[in-house]
Specification:
This protein is α+β, with helices and mostly antiparallel strands. It is built from 3 helices and 4 strands; from the N terminus they run αββαββα. The relative contact order is 0.20.
């Protein structure tokens, strides 16, 4: 297996700016903090990220509290940020931030009612 190419900080910042603007580079990791409406939403995000990471066989570090989850990605074997980190970050972002009510289609999405809120979407 060929060794993955590690991106330097400038390359990481550029790719984040163009492809993952809600993610940031900090301390050698690409990171994203998801705000939730409470513990239920926090657990749903953790489980979603866990499923995607296991399917990809590329595992992030996760820190969580009552109403937030931070996902951190870095390729441990390559000791830096690689294409696999960006690919998994994009998949996580697509799935966690999916809002079917904003698309044409039969799925209405979560009602605009705090009783059903689980994630705090960016406006």
């Amino acid at each position: 297996m060929a060794k993955a190419t590690v991106f330097d900080d400038a390359q990481v910042e550029e790719q984040l700016k163009t492809e993952l603007p809600t993610w940031r580079l900090e301390d050698g990791w690409i990171r994203r903090t998801y705000k939730t409406a409470g513990w239920k939403g926090t657990l749903m995000i953790i489980n979603t990220v866990g499923h995607l990471a296991e399917a990809a066989f590329h595992h992030p570090d996760i820190t969580a509290s009552y109403a937030w989850v931070e996902v951190r990605l870095m390729n441990h074997a390559a000791k830096g940020i690689t294409e696999s980190d960006f690919a998994l970050a994009k998949k996580i972002e697509d799935v966690v931030m999916w809002q079917p009510g904003k698309e044409d289609g039969p799925l209405s999405g979560t009602p605009d009612d705090p009783r059903f809120a689980y994630i705090k979407y960016e406006k």
